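Input chain follows. Return structure tokens only.
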Amino acid sequence: MCTRYISPATADIERHWHVGARTPWRGAEVFPNYPGPFIRAARDSVDPPRELVIGQWSLIPWFAKERKLRYPTCNARAEELSEKASYKLPWARGQRCIIPALAFFEPNWETGRHEPWIFRRSDGAPWGLAGLWNLWTDKASGEMVESYTLLTLNADTHPLMRRMHRPDPQRPPEMQDKRSVVPIERQDTDAWLFGTLEQARSLVRLAPPGTFSAQPAAGQGAQSVLP
């Protein structure tokens, strides 16, 4: 599960993903239930442009009675998108998004304690992480809230990502269900945002180990790790 990442500022997002509409965002560390930017297919256009939206990182499903949920929805297991009540409708409707990130953090427990690691791309580009979005309306107030979730995939066989997260001593190494984010390469952005479900499914895969530049975070915060 990923619960912390660093988002680029609006200008960098627009430059990298060619997003036309300007949405104010200064760039910051993002945590669940707090605002963050995501890119999706523009909702009010017959053409396929992309738009940048600021929403809550923790998807609010259509059936939620209130904005604050009692269960986490910042991550969605990619293997269960067609089954889980919170995600199956956005997945079926093609409400896919790209979550821009300069870096993300995961816990490493190889020393026997929680040690945060920071993950950048080895080529210096920002990550485009796969996600789903939803628009929820508060029936009491009429407020409309944009929200999103980050997709994760089983990484038990990945040489790098299987080293993250606290191991379960009750499970064998090949059944730990370690999780990884799902990067979408820039050339696959339109296929993810506008493609069919079959095209989208083909993009839900683990990134090769060489894609990552990973190291212990050693207390690095947003100001010290930004390039």
